[in-house]
Amino acid sequence: MKIITELDKLNVREKTAVAIGKFDGIHVGHRELLSRILEKKNDGLKATVFTFDPSPEEFFVGHPVPQLFAREEKLRAFQELGVDVLVMFPLNEKTAATDPEEFVRKILVDGLNASYIAAGSDVSFGDKGKGDSKLLERLAKELSYELCIIDKVKIDGEEVSSTRVRNAVADGDMNLTKRLLGSEYSVSGIVEHGNHLGHTIGVPTVNILPPKMKLLPPYGVYSSTVKIGKKEFKGMTNIGRKPTVSEKEKVGVETYIYDFDCDVYGEFIEVVLHSFVRPEIKFESMEQLKLQIQQDIKNAARNF
After folding, report:
1. Rounded to whole angstroms, what are the CA distances from 266 to 2, 192, 263, 298?
2. Are 235 and 224 in contact (CB under 8 A)?
3. Most buried residue, 72, 119, 131, 222, by most Cβ within 10 Å?
4. In 181-217, which positions are buried (b, 16+ CB within 10 angstroms) versus exposed (e)?
5. What three-state secondary structure class fits 197?
6. Please, what is the end-to-end C-alpha distance for the chain in angstroms?
């Protein structure tokens, strides 16, 4: 997958099918959009995603906003879906003020060689977000591109949006999150050495530090699946700071993997969260913690 992050690199020669969107979380609405450009690969077009970096939400509020998909997770997801070109449009004071019509002409058509454009009915781009689906429709014939405008996808009578997904994650509702995303929520990273407490109490774990701006569900215990390479293992995951151990612990994702005894330090893993088991608790003693973990392992196993 080719990744373009600089405007002067927008010189794609092959004809493209472009999906425009924020893509801060790849939910079912985004997947519908992506399916349209992926279909165009059969016609010889390069499936191209046009998104923004930082996200418009983060840029306009002026401070970092927790994301459903961290940068590396997003890149991996697009690549696995079969996207050929990913444009991460650099959003700053100058580029945000781009004239909407110039955006279509110079960036989408001249720069990306778009012959097919797919966007949601609420698409907005250019100066003050004035660019919209009507502008894309007006310019389609003149600039010789096919346009596909997709209506909002609804679940339970309510529109699917990244905000709705974030609310579901924040509530710890992994079932609704899965329905909205079209896939289960996960956290990924490189396995790091922790304080090895798990080994001392007979419950060895694999530990990752979540990406800084990754949106996490409520701290606590979850049933999970751990993906290591092409293999998957059932697990029980704790997300939080381990308050029984120390008040200064970093937020971590710590997973006990059932029937597993391999050294995976330094390896990339993906922890897929299935269902909430219990909230994070500060115990009075390590013995109480040990007993609770044993119970958590049993409770989490019932979800498989």
Report:
1. 26, 6, 9, 28
2. yes
3. 222
4. beeebbbbbebeebeebbeeeebebbbbebbeebbbb
5. helix
6. 35
d(CA 104, CA 112): 10
DSSP state letter for 246: -
Q: Are 100 and 125 spatial neighbours (Cβ–Cβ below 8 Å)?
A: yes
Q: At what angle do helices 174-181 and 162-170 cross, to 10 degrees?
A: 160
Running along the chain, 304 residues long, what does each successive block of 10 average in pLDDT? 90 95 90 96 97 82 83 91 95 91 96 96 91 96 96 95 94 96 95 66 82 92 95 94 66 91 90 94 79 85 80
With b meaning 16 or more CB within 10 Å and e meaning fewer, what string describes 20-41?
bbbbbbbbbbbbbbbebbbebe
DSSP-derived 3-state class of residue 128: helix
Q: Which of 204, 203, 223 is nearest to 276 (CA)?
A: 223
Q: Domains plus CATH for the chain?
A: 2-159 (3.40.50.620), 184-301 (2.40.30.30)
Which residues in 55-87 are b (16+ Cβ under 10 Å) and which e? bbebbeeeeeebbbbbeebbbbbbeebebbbbb
Q: What pTM value is reported for the model?
A: 0.88
Which of 161, 242, 167, 166 lies closest to 198, judged by CA? 242
- The H helix count followed by the E strand count for the chain is 10, 14
Distance CA 5, CA 145 (A): 24
The token pair at 210 is: 């979540």
Residue tagged 């058509």 (tokens): 109
